[in-house]
Amino acid sequence: MKVFVTGATGWIGSAAVDELLSAGHEVVGLARSDVSASALEAKGASALRGDLDDLDSLRRGAAEAEGVVHLANKHDWANPAESNRAERTAVATLAEALAGTGRPLVVANGLSGLVQGQPALETDPSPDVGPDSHRGGAENLALDYVGRGVRTVIARFAPTVHGVGDWGFVNFLMSAARKQGVSGYIGDGTHAWSAVHRSDAARLIRLGLESAPAGSRLHAIGEEAISTRAIAEVIGRALHIPVVSIAPEEANAHFGFVGRFFSLSMTGSSERTRELLAWAPAGPTLMDDIMAGAYKKGGER
């Protein structure tokens, strides 16, 4: 299958490209720079120059492909409205290019905000509807195209997709711990996060692209619920520093922007996903990765 991938040189996207190539697929990755294009070509993929605002490139990439994986996102924490606008516009552009073809469109989303107080299930619809909602309501927008001949598949990722080189949430927690000299958790530390290893997430993307039915919501979750206190404790062990509770009102000062996420429970189940695709996560656990040095200081950005 010829697959067009946005976010092809990102944290999850680069692993997905490797997985797709190893399974014999032809990959064309969206590349914002010569460096990104060269990285894709070195792997054996092709590069299509453009970004999320280059709608002509998005249309071309989707129209010439037999399947699309959309992983790119601006992640502009200072201007979330711009990230939401770009995400919705990109998904609409890709879906329009695939309308009537029956071809797959895999669209990334996260678990944050899906369900409060209990693990999110694959059957739980996203509450984000419309252009002013989180991610521009792109999940529901993409699913609307099932009725227009697109095999839409939603891939919801755990809040931490971990592995060597991860620069996401856990990396920022490690950075805060080094800076403060203590590894903190918020309040009593009973909030929890789901987690998945990067290699398992990449394999799920491939399986979803190849065979998930139209309208499927897939959960890339290897570990359903790891308490924030347990995460802080393993960071403390890895860095040989004390582990302490941080008062909720001091969380932002202590952790920076990641504090508002560390104060939330973001968990989900992947039971239906495992049954549907015979997907069995096999990568290291989050604790294994932290203790093995996956978050060494040199990996910070």
UniProtKB/TrEMBL annotation:
<dbReference type="InterPro" id="IPR001509">
    <property type="entry name" value="Epimerase_deHydtase"/>
</dbReference>
<dbReference type="Pfam" id="PF01370">
    <property type="entry name" value="Epimerase"/>
</dbReference>
<dbReference type="InterPro" id="IPR051783">
    <property type="entry name" value="NAD(P)-dependent_oxidoreduct"/>
</dbReference>
<dbReference type="InterPro" id="IPR036291">
    <property type="entry name" value="NAD(P)-bd_dom_sf"/>
</dbReference>
<protein>
    <submittedName>
        <fullName>SDR family oxidoreductase</fullName>
    </submittedName>
</protein>
<feature type="region of interest" description="Disordered">
    <location>
        <begin position="117"/>
        <end position="136"/>
    </location>
</feature>
<feature type="domain" description="NAD-dependent epimerase/dehydratase">
    <location>
        <begin position="3"/>
        <end position="211"/>
    </location>
</feature>
